[in-house]
Each structure stands twice: as structure tokens, then as C-alpha cells.
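User: I'm curious whether this sequence folds into something compact or stays loose and floppy. Could you predict its structure so I can see for myself?
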Amino acid sequence: MEAKKNIQRQDGGPVQNNPGDIAGIFSRHVKTVYRLCYSYLASPHDAEDATQAVFMKLVAKPRTFEDAEHEKAWLLVVAANYCKDVLKSAERARAAEMPPDVADPSAKSEPNDVLEAVLALPPLYKDCVYLYYYEGYKADEIAKMTETPPSTIRNRLRDARALLKTALEGE
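Assistant: Here's the prediction. I'll summarize afterward.
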């Protein structure tokens, strides 16, 4: 029987390297996964569904992670791939929009121009911006996660900043 290894979380607490620790993994990363899903899908309901699907993949096929960063990176990659699949799906393309006379309960009273501009970025740039600015990953770490050269990540961040500057100044 393989011995369980204790590893340190970023906050200093131990992380059991145990595939059965789904509840712990969920509590540590649910908000992060939800934010990433929301950045792709732009709907709180779709983001909740996607978040649930990501964690159900972990329940269906438990994994052992090297440390807390490894589990977070795995969840973010799975979430991004799942959201991309949802966006490509025929079911989503056929989904009917709400009639204009029906109030949208998820609509916010105050628009967030920066968030709207980030969500409007092409997925290529949105991924980099989210991981860099919202999750605090460095360009080299994003490059490893996405299997992309670090210079490409830096160029995408530069291009995304230029697109955001243009979009926000134009309003």
C-alpha cells in the first residue's frame, strides 16, 4: 500500500495527497474554477453548471496531485477545456435568447466596463489575461499550463492590453 504524502498548501496547511479528498479540493478551488468558467461563458448559470461538471470529472476519475498548485492548474485546464467545448456545442448555438420584455434576474444594475471588455476579448487573449491578472500566474507558469512558449504568452498579454486600452478608451 502506497503511503500518503503530506504537502504544504500556499497558506501553510497540509494537503493530503489523497484522491478521496474531493471535498477539500472543492472548498479550496470552487471560487477560482467558477470565475474562470464565468469569464468564458458570461452567464452565472452556465458557469455554475460548468463548475459542477469540472468537479464531477474529478469525482468520476479521482487523481493524485503533487501539490496544491498542481491540483489548481489541473482544475483550471479542465475548466477552460470544458468551457470551450460548451461554446462550440450545437446545443448552445440552438439556445433561444430571452424575449426583450422578460427581465433578466442575473443582470446587474451597474455595468463593469473592464470586466465586459475582458469578456469580449478573443479566447486566446482572455485565457492569458485571466490567468495572469486574476489568478496571479506568471507568464512562464501560464506557458507550462497551456503548452505554449513563454514569449507567445508575453506577446498575447501585450496584445490583450492594447485591445483593452482601445476598447476602454473608445467608450
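Summary: The CA atoms of residues 125 and 158 lie 9 Å apart. DSSP finds eight helices and two strands in the chain.
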